[in-house]
Amino acid sequence: LAALPAWGGGDGLRLEAAEAEGAGDQRARATAYQALLGEALAAAQGGGGAQALCAFAAAVLDDSVDAVTSRAMCGALVEALGSAVGLPADAYRAAAEQTLALLQPRAVSFLAETNSLRQQLSVLLEAEEEWSKAAAVLSGMDLDSGTNEANREQKEGDKLRTEVRIARLYLEDDDPVRAESHVRRAAALVAQTKDEALQLQYSTCHARVLDAQRRFLEAAAAYYAVSKKVSVVDQEGNRLEQSAEEQEVALQLATTCAILAPAGPQRSRVLALLYKDERVARLASFALLEKVHLERMLTADEVETFTKMLRTHQMAVLPNGQKVHERAIVEHNLLAASTLYANISFKELGALLGTTAAAAEQMAARMVVEDRMRASIDQVDGFIHFQTDAEELSVWDDQIKSVCGAVNAILDDAIAKGLVKEDAVVG
Length: 427
Hints:
Elements: E1 3-4, E2 15-16, H1 26-48, H2 51-60, H3 67-83, H4 89-103, H5 111-127, H6 131-139, H7 152-172, H8 176-190, H9 196-212, H10 216-227, E3 231-233, E4 239-241, H11 244-260, H12 265-276, H13 286-293, H14 300-307, H15 324-340, E5 343-345, H16 346-353, H17 357-369, E6 375-378, E7 383-386, H18 389-416
Antiparallel strand pairs: 1-2, 3-4, 5-7, 6-7
Helix pairs in contact: 1-2, 1-3, 2-3, 2-4, 3-5, 4-5, 5-6, 6-7, 7-8, 7-9, 8-9, 9-10, 10-11, 10-12, 11-12, 12-13, 16-17
């Protein structure tokens, strides 16, 4: 009888060639392979390692085995790995990785088996907290092949679910760069699904990516939308409740991002939205949020307390040597100063903000150019003059007076020339 040696010479298991029993009889070959699969699985469950399972995979995927038998036995192997009880994790992982390596050149012919095995292996890697490896395994799935009009909706749902899961895994490993590409792919599909639970998962991933990219204003709005979700309906029609703790975490993240966002009118609107939410009063950061919303100066102690709530990327060092949260605090205090002073020298402003006069001038100039603060800068004298709402109203009043005066002058001229009768003009 022809035979194949055991993988790596492990437990002595030998795989008989497919023609060993009933050459040309497909059913007999399948029966023989099923028996060998049972032996290989038993050997692995008994502590013999993955050698026999790897050998079985190599045998059924050999070019000498006909396509029908090879596909059937590969499917049986994948199913056995997924349902086996007592199979050590290291043996399963080794067998799954080796089988995937053997399947890779022929993935198109074994699409269902490859995708199923990748799903199983990613679950194991996730359980072992190897987030990026689990995401990489899922990324190798082919979710586009075999799509037609009949199964398009299901395929797109599976693809969305997979893209969201990959993004979540990368985010668990603090890799927002890789997560972003999968969030973008999911964005093109999320509007088409009716699965609200999946939509919530996508929204959470999207908010975390925005946060990691330091797009704090958008992240605050996204986190706040997540915090408002009390319950969602999944694909099967089951209503799932989002716990109060999960909502509070999202709300806290929204508050943090709003405080870190660039000071200006847009941030003020988001802060007002959060401040009006009665749930915010229960947060540890409420006192700080209130001062930021009311445009009051923040003290060093308050900043230190706030810093303890931040994540690593929210304290990253910028190219100018300043940290992300420090820039946000200085910008806020500058905006708060604009409500206290009509004008101030940059030397005094720098001392007030805890920075240099040059840095204060540069920051003020940037905020004015970006239309985040109303002020004019006198570089000759080294002063900044803040514009208040009262000043704007005064200017508006002067403009109205000017227009009314011009209208009156036109009417007087028309009356003088006899173009309009004086009694026709309503006073």
